[in-house]
């Protein structure tokens, strides 16, 4: 695979072993594969997250979208 997409990974709760495995995978993919991570939440400042962010942002294009959520707007319009 040339591209790996981690969609809304911030919602997944990892135990210590799972978090270390994810860190190892991202470290292995570093400068080898294209990676897309989506989230509506900001990264926390944990040590693990800091290590991941360090690798992810080295060759990065950050797209920050502002405005209303399409899902929320759609849900509200369906209730009317």
The secondary-structure class comes to alpha+beta
Biggest β-sheet: strands ordered side by side in the sheet: 1-2
How much of the polypeptide forms β-strand, as a percent range? 5-15%
Write down the overall geometry.
elongated
- As a percent range, the share of helical residues equals 40-55%
Q: What is the overall pLDDT average?
A: 77
Q: What is the CATH architecture assignment?
A: 3-Layer(aba) Sandwich
Under the CATH scheme, which class? Alpha Beta
Encode the helix/strand succession as letters: EHEHH
CATH fold type = Rossmann fold
Give the strand tally.
2
Give the low-confidence spans: none
Tell me the count of domains.
Answer: 1
Determine the N-to-C terminus distance: 44 Å
Assign the CATH superfamily.
P-loop containing nucleotide triphosphate hydrolases
Rg over C-alpha atoms, rounded to the nearest angstrom: 15 Å
Number of helices: 3
Provide structural commentary.
The protein has 80 residues and is an alpha+beta fold. It has one domain: P-loop containing nucleotide triphosphate hydrolases (Rossmann fold), CATH 3.40.50.300. Helices cover 42% and strands 12% of the residues. The chain contains 3 helices and 2 strands; from the N terminus they run E-H-E-H-H. It has helices at residues 16-29, 47-56, 70-79; strands at 3-7, 34-38. The protein has a two-stranded parallel sheet with strand order 1-2. Helix 1 (16-29) packs parallel to helix 2.
